[in-house]
Amino acid sequence: MQFLADLESIWYGPPADAAPTLVFLHEGLGSASTWRDFPKRLAEATGYGALVYSRRGYGSSPPAELPRPIGYMHDEADVLAEVMRHHGICEAVVVGHSDGASIALIYAGRSASGPLRALILEAPHVFVETLSVESIAAMKRAWETTDLRGRLARHHRDVDHAFRGWSDVWLDPRFRDWNIEELLTEIEAPMLLIQGSDDEYGTWKQVEAIERHVRGPVETLLVPGAGHAAHRDQPELVLQKMATFVKIYLTGSS
Q: Tens of pLDDT along 78-103?
């Protein structure tokens, strides 16, 4: 994967050979920059390093081939494994948001061994809900009729490419059958699941499905008044919960 060195990435805190690494996977319209200062703050709170990167087609990373295939998140799970090898990461806590959370689950479900030590998943998807499709369709209308394009352009070198790469596949009728629940039964790593109470792209049913299938310990957090990005809507609450989870499951302290 020659393009790995060209992926936009940011590193905070100690290097991979000095401490475990928090690996951040952004949402479907996200990039390294949409996380803002949250990765840096979590790195400081835990003493871990943090790697934040933009997947192909997002941020300043190289473009992806469009249209994306229905199984694009499975492809990105393979890329995640290569990214961690490229950066020499020996112990990883993967922090995924939305699409990024689903990619993390696919990676965990297919990687019996490797650097993964824990998962922190915000607004994960393991199957497609009608709510998600309807909200994305509404987002597409807003893209065509409001200043949404301009607001997203500051985070992406090619904002049209980023938007189409996300919306077109989610609105493809074939994507309604997308489901990764069968992979969950292979996951033993501890995980923290975070869901906003007012998330317009998914419901608590996603959390329940994950809890029902995985084999490892699961902690959950329903964030009151938060939408799809709970770490932006309630940053202090989410930051504290994530840091505490890491300390308990990776260091044994509380």
A: 999 999 999 999 999 999 999 999 99
